[in-house]
Design brief:
Elements: H1 2-28, H2 42-58, H3 64-71, H4 91-109, E1 112-113, E2 129-132, E3 135-140, E4 148-153, H5 165-170, E5 172-173, E6 179-180, H6 183-190, E7 195-202, E8 208-218, E9 227-234, H7 262-266, E10 278-279, E11 288-289, E12 294-302
Parallel strand pairs: 1-2
Antiparallel strand pairs: 2-3, 3-4, 4-6, 4-12, 5-6, 7-8, 7-12, 8-9, 10-11
Helix pairs in contact: 3-4
Length: about 300
Protein backbone atom coordinates (compact mmCIF):
# COMPACT_ATOMS: atom_id res chain seq x y z
CA UNK A 1 0.00 0.00 0.00
CA UNK A 2 2.77 2.35 0.89
CA UNK A 3 4.51 1.69 -2.41
CA UNK A 4 1.24 2.22 -4.33
CA UNK A 5 0.65 5.43 -2.42
CA UNK A 6 4.18 6.62 -3.25
CA UNK A 7 3.66 5.76 -6.88
CA UNK A 8 0.39 7.65 -6.96
CA UNK A 9 2.12 10.66 -5.41
CA UNK A 10 4.87 10.54 -8.07
CA UNK A 11 2.26 10.12 -10.84
CA UNK A 12 0.16 12.97 -9.45
CA UNK A 13 3.21 15.21 -9.10
CA UNK A 14 4.34 14.45 -12.67
CA UNK A 15 0.85 15.09 -14.03
CA UNK A 16 0.71 18.42 -12.18
CA UNK A 17 4.02 19.57 -13.69
CA UNK A 18 2.88 18.45 -17.14
CA UNK A 19 -0.38 20.38 -16.82
CA UNK A 20 1.51 23.46 -15.63
CA UNK A 21 3.89 23.20 -18.58
CA UNK A 22 0.95 22.73 -20.99
CA UNK A 23 -0.81 25.73 -19.44
CA UNK A 24 2.30 27.85 -19.89
CA UNK A 25 2.64 26.71 -23.50
CA UNK A 26 -0.99 27.50 -24.30
CA UNK A 27 -0.62 31.01 -22.90
CA UNK A 28 2.49 31.95 -24.77
CA UNK A 29 3.12 29.77 -27.79
CA UNK A 30 1.13 31.85 -30.27
CA UNK A 31 2.49 35.26 -29.22
CA UNK A 32 4.42 36.90 -32.03
CA UNK A 33 7.57 38.86 -31.49
CA UNK A 34 6.97 42.58 -31.96
CA UNK A 35 8.14 43.71 -35.37
CA UNK A 36 10.38 46.72 -35.32
CA UNK A 37 8.85 49.46 -37.47
CA UNK A 38 11.60 50.93 -39.57
CA UNK A 39 10.85 54.43 -40.78
CA UNK A 40 12.42 55.87 -43.88
CA UNK A 41 14.91 58.69 -43.39
CA UNK A 42 14.28 62.13 -44.85
CA UNK A 43 16.92 61.48 -47.52
CA UNK A 44 15.33 58.17 -48.51
CA UNK A 45 11.87 59.77 -48.73
CA UNK A 46 13.14 62.68 -50.82
CA UNK A 47 15.01 60.31 -53.16
CA UNK A 48 12.03 58.00 -53.73
CA UNK A 49 9.60 60.92 -54.02
CA UNK A 50 11.79 62.53 -56.68
CA UNK A 51 11.78 59.28 -58.67
CA UNK A 52 8.01 58.91 -58.31
CA UNK A 53 7.33 62.52 -59.37
CA UNK A 54 9.64 62.16 -62.37
CA UNK A 55 7.53 59.23 -63.52
CA UNK A 56 4.30 61.14 -62.94
CA UNK A 57 5.45 64.20 -64.88
CA UNK A 58 7.07 62.38 -67.82
CA UNK A 59 4.86 59.32 -68.09
CA UNK A 60 7.91 57.04 -67.74
CA UNK A 61 7.35 55.24 -64.45
CA UNK A 62 10.51 54.33 -62.55
CA UNK A 63 10.99 50.61 -61.99
CA UNK A 64 11.61 49.82 -58.28
CA UNK A 65 14.38 47.38 -59.24
CA UNK A 66 16.21 50.09 -61.19
CA UNK A 67 15.70 52.62 -58.38
CA UNK A 68 17.11 50.16 -55.82
CA UNK A 69 20.20 49.53 -58.00
CA UNK A 70 20.74 53.22 -58.69
CA UNK A 71 20.45 53.96 -54.97
CA UNK A 72 23.65 51.99 -54.38
CA UNK A 73 25.70 54.26 -56.64
CA UNK A 74 24.02 57.70 -56.67
CA UNK A 75 26.27 60.55 -55.48
CA UNK A 76 25.66 64.05 -54.19
CA UNK A 77 27.05 67.29 -55.66
CA UNK A 78 30.38 66.68 -53.87
CA UNK A 79 30.83 63.28 -55.48
CA UNK A 80 30.10 61.42 -52.24
CA UNK A 81 27.67 58.52 -52.15
CA UNK A 82 24.28 59.61 -50.88
CA UNK A 83 23.50 56.31 -49.19
CA UNK A 84 25.59 53.86 -47.20
CA UNK A 85 25.00 50.12 -47.05
CA UNK A 86 22.62 50.32 -44.09
CA UNK A 87 20.45 52.82 -45.98
CA UNK A 88 19.95 50.76 -49.14
CA UNK A 89 16.33 49.79 -49.83
CA UNK A 90 14.93 46.72 -51.50
CA UNK A 91 12.74 46.86 -54.64
CA UNK A 92 9.74 45.72 -52.55
CA UNK A 93 10.23 48.58 -50.08
CA UNK A 94 10.42 51.08 -52.93
CA UNK A 95 7.41 49.56 -54.70
CA UNK A 96 5.41 49.80 -51.48
CA UNK A 97 6.39 53.47 -51.05
CA UNK A 98 5.41 54.23 -54.66
CA UNK A 99 2.04 52.57 -54.06
CA UNK A 100 1.40 54.76 -51.03
CA UNK A 101 2.28 57.89 -52.99
CA UNK A 102 -0.04 56.84 -55.79
CA UNK A 103 -2.87 56.21 -53.34
CA UNK A 104 -2.34 59.55 -51.61
CA UNK A 105 -2.33 61.31 -54.96
CA UNK A 106 -5.70 59.74 -55.86
CA UNK A 107 -7.09 60.63 -52.44
CA UNK A 108 -5.79 64.20 -52.70
CA UNK A 109 -7.50 64.66 -56.06
CA UNK A 110 -10.81 63.99 -54.32
CA UNK A 111 -10.08 66.20 -51.31
CA UNK A 112 -10.45 69.97 -51.32
CA UNK A 113 -7.98 71.75 -49.02
CA UNK A 114 -8.01 75.34 -47.85
CA UNK A 115 -4.30 75.62 -48.64
CA UNK A 116 -1.15 73.50 -48.84
CA UNK A 117 -0.32 74.11 -45.18
CA UNK A 118 -3.28 71.89 -44.21
CA UNK A 119 -1.60 68.74 -45.53
CA UNK A 120 -0.80 66.30 -42.74
CA UNK A 121 2.74 66.63 -41.37
CA UNK A 122 3.65 63.04 -42.26
CA UNK A 123 2.68 63.60 -45.90
CA UNK A 124 4.59 66.82 -46.48
CA UNK A 125 7.57 65.35 -48.25
CA UNK A 126 5.35 63.08 -50.31
CA UNK A 127 2.85 65.50 -51.80
CA UNK A 128 3.24 67.97 -54.61
CA UNK A 129 -0.13 68.46 -56.24
CA UNK A 130 -3.65 68.69 -54.80
CA UNK A 131 -6.91 70.59 -54.98
CA UNK A 132 -6.92 73.91 -53.10
CA UNK A 133 -10.31 75.62 -53.03
CA UNK A 134 -11.65 74.64 -56.46
CA UNK A 135 -8.33 74.86 -58.29
CA UNK A 136 -5.43 72.48 -58.77
CA UNK A 137 -2.44 73.75 -56.82
CA UNK A 138 1.24 72.93 -56.65
CA UNK A 139 2.57 72.64 -53.11
CA UNK A 140 6.17 73.15 -52.05
CA UNK A 141 6.71 70.86 -49.05
CA UNK A 142 10.47 71.25 -48.62
CA UNK A 143 11.41 74.95 -48.68
CA UNK A 144 11.73 76.46 -45.20
CA UNK A 145 9.51 73.86 -43.53
CA UNK A 146 7.08 73.41 -46.44
CA UNK A 147 3.36 74.15 -46.54
CA UNK A 148 3.68 76.68 -49.38
CA UNK A 149 0.97 77.17 -52.00
CA UNK A 150 2.74 78.15 -55.22
CA UNK A 151 1.08 81.07 -57.03
CA UNK A 152 3.61 81.60 -59.84
CA UNK A 153 6.23 79.33 -61.35
CA UNK A 154 8.29 80.12 -64.44
CA UNK A 155 11.00 77.60 -65.27
CA UNK A 156 10.80 76.81 -68.97
CA UNK A 157 9.36 80.02 -70.38
CA UNK A 158 6.90 77.96 -72.40
CA UNK A 159 3.82 79.78 -71.06
CA UNK A 160 3.12 83.41 -71.95
CA UNK A 161 2.08 85.65 -69.04
CA UNK A 162 0.63 88.53 -71.04
CA UNK A 163 -3.00 87.52 -70.49
CA UNK A 164 -6.53 88.82 -70.25
CA UNK A 165 -8.16 89.87 -66.98
CA UNK A 166 -10.28 86.71 -66.84
CA UNK A 167 -7.33 84.43 -67.47
CA UNK A 168 -5.33 86.05 -64.67
CA UNK A 169 -8.38 85.93 -62.41
CA UNK A 170 -8.98 82.19 -62.87
CA UNK A 171 -5.41 81.02 -63.42
CA UNK A 172 -3.62 79.56 -66.43
CA UNK A 173 -0.69 77.40 -67.52
CA UNK A 174 0.54 73.91 -66.74
CA UNK A 175 0.55 72.86 -63.08
CA UNK A 176 3.60 70.65 -63.80
CA UNK A 177 5.39 73.50 -65.60
CA UNK A 178 4.87 77.26 -65.78
CA UNK A 179 1.61 78.65 -64.37
CA UNK A 180 -0.30 81.40 -62.55
CA UNK A 181 -2.58 80.20 -59.73
CA UNK A 182 -5.23 82.87 -60.26
CA UNK A 183 -5.97 86.24 -58.62
CA UNK A 184 -9.35 85.13 -57.32
CA UNK A 185 -7.86 82.14 -55.48
CA UNK A 186 -4.92 84.17 -54.17
CA UNK A 187 -7.41 86.72 -52.83
CA UNK A 188 -9.54 84.06 -51.11
CA UNK A 189 -6.48 82.58 -49.40
CA UNK A 190 -4.83 85.83 -48.29
CA UNK A 191 -8.12 87.23 -46.98
CA UNK A 192 -8.73 84.15 -44.82
CA UNK A 193 -5.86 84.87 -42.42
CA UNK A 194 -2.34 86.31 -42.22
CA UNK A 195 -0.13 85.11 -45.06
CA UNK A 196 3.53 85.50 -45.95
CA UNK A 197 5.03 85.56 -49.43
CA UNK A 198 8.29 83.96 -50.48
CA UNK A 199 9.95 84.58 -53.85
CA UNK A 200 12.80 82.29 -54.96
CA UNK A 201 14.83 82.96 -58.11
CA UNK A 202 18.27 82.57 -59.72
CA UNK A 203 20.41 85.65 -60.41
CA UNK A 204 22.74 86.31 -63.34
CA UNK A 205 25.60 84.62 -61.43
CA UNK A 206 23.54 81.42 -61.18
CA UNK A 207 23.07 81.97 -57.45
CA UNK A 208 19.75 81.21 -55.78
CA UNK A 209 18.35 84.29 -54.04
CA UNK A 210 15.10 84.93 -52.18
CA UNK A 211 12.78 87.56 -50.75
CA UNK A 212 10.26 87.01 -47.93
CA UNK A 213 7.39 89.36 -47.04
CA UNK A 214 5.61 88.80 -43.73
CA UNK A 215 2.60 90.76 -44.98
CA UNK A 216 0.98 89.75 -48.24
CA UNK A 217 -2.64 90.41 -49.19
CA UNK A 218 -4.38 90.52 -52.56
CA UNK A 219 -7.71 92.36 -52.52
CA UNK A 220 -10.93 91.31 -54.23
CA UNK A 221 -12.01 91.95 -57.81
CA UNK A 222 -13.74 95.21 -56.82
CA UNK A 223 -10.36 96.53 -55.61
CA UNK A 224 -8.77 95.32 -58.89
CA UNK A 225 -6.86 92.73 -56.84
CA UNK A 226 -4.94 95.47 -55.04
CA UNK A 227 -1.58 94.42 -53.58
CA UNK A 228 -0.65 94.95 -49.92
CA UNK A 229 2.90 93.84 -49.12
CA UNK A 230 5.52 94.57 -46.44
CA UNK A 231 7.91 93.18 -43.82
CA UNK A 232 10.76 92.28 -46.18
CA UNK A 233 13.72 90.02 -45.41
CA UNK A 234 16.08 88.04 -47.63
CA UNK A 235 19.04 88.58 -49.96
CA UNK A 236 17.29 89.43 -53.25
CA UNK A 237 16.42 93.05 -52.44
CA UNK A 238 13.11 94.69 -51.55
CA UNK A 239 11.97 95.37 -55.10
CA UNK A 240 8.28 94.62 -54.50
CA UNK A 241 8.03 97.53 -52.07
CA UNK A 242 7.35 100.04 -54.85
CA UNK A 243 4.35 97.98 -55.98
CA UNK A 244 2.61 98.13 -52.60
CA UNK A 245 -0.90 99.51 -52.99
CA UNK A 246 -0.97 98.98 -56.76
CA UNK A 247 -3.86 97.44 -58.68
CA UNK A 248 -3.42 94.51 -61.04
CA UNK A 249 -3.06 95.36 -64.73
CA UNK A 250 -3.59 93.13 -67.77
CA UNK A 251 -3.61 93.72 -71.51
CA UNK A 252 -7.35 94.43 -71.43
CA UNK A 253 -7.54 96.28 -68.06
CA UNK A 254 -5.16 99.21 -67.60
CA UNK A 255 -5.10 99.96 -63.85
CA UNK A 256 -1.53 101.28 -63.53
CA UNK A 257 -0.45 104.92 -63.03
CA UNK A 258 1.48 105.24 -66.29
CA UNK A 259 0.15 107.15 -69.29
CA UNK A 260 0.02 103.94 -71.35
CA UNK A 261 -0.66 100.32 -70.45
CA UNK A 262 2.37 98.81 -68.70
CA UNK A 263 1.10 95.32 -69.53
CA UNK A 264 1.68 96.09 -73.21
CA UNK A 265 5.04 97.75 -72.57
CA UNK A 266 6.34 94.93 -70.32
CA UNK A 267 4.40 92.14 -72.10
CA UNK A 268 3.12 90.79 -68.81
CA UNK A 269 0.38 90.97 -66.17
CA UNK A 270 1.39 92.52 -62.84
CA UNK A 271 0.83 95.12 -60.13
CA UNK A 272 2.34 97.93 -62.19
CA UNK A 273 2.74 101.56 -61.20
CA UNK A 274 4.80 103.38 -63.90
CA UNK A 275 5.88 100.70 -64.60
CA UNK A 276 7.89 98.42 -62.25
CA UNK A 277 10.98 97.70 -60.17
CA UNK A 278 10.28 93.99 -60.50
CA UNK A 279 8.14 91.96 -62.89
CA UNK A 280 8.12 88.16 -62.85
CA UNK A 281 5.49 88.02 -65.62
CA UNK A 282 7.39 89.53 -68.55
CA UNK A 283 6.98 87.35 -71.63
CA UNK A 284 9.02 88.89 -74.46
CA UNK A 285 11.83 89.74 -72.05
CA UNK A 286 13.28 87.78 -69.14
CA UNK A 287 11.64 88.29 -65.73
CA UNK A 288 13.49 90.65 -63.45
CA UNK A 289 13.84 91.59 -59.79
CA UNK A 290 15.90 94.75 -59.78
CA UNK A 291 17.89 93.05 -62.56
CA UNK A 292 17.32 90.12 -64.88
CA UNK A 293 16.73 86.79 -63.10
CA UNK A 294 15.51 83.30 -64.04
CA UNK A 295 13.37 80.49 -62.63
CA UNK A 296 11.17 82.66 -60.38
CA UNK A 297 8.74 81.02 -57.97
CA UNK A 298 6.21 82.94 -55.85
CA UNK A 299 4.53 81.04 -53.01
CA UNK A 300 2.39 81.89 -50.00
CA UNK A 301 1.86 80.30 -46.59
CA UNK A 302 -0.39 81.05 -43.64
CA UNK A 303 1.47 82.37 -40.60
Amino acid sequence: MESKSSAEKVLHSGTTHALQAESTLKKGWALKNKREVKRFSKEQIEYMTEKFQFGESTGYKCDPDDVAKEMRHVKNSKGIRKFQLEHFLSPSQIASFFSRLSLKKRQASNTVYDDCDMIAEESRTEMSQLTVLANTAYCDMTTDGGGWTVMLKRYSGSVGFKRTWKECENGFGDINGDFWFGNNYIHILTSSGKYELRVDMVDKNNKTIYAVYKTFVVGDSASKYKLTVGGYSGNAGDYLKSHNGMKFTTEDQDNDTFKTNCADYNTGSWWYFHCSTCDLSRTDKKPYWGSVISKPVMMIRKI
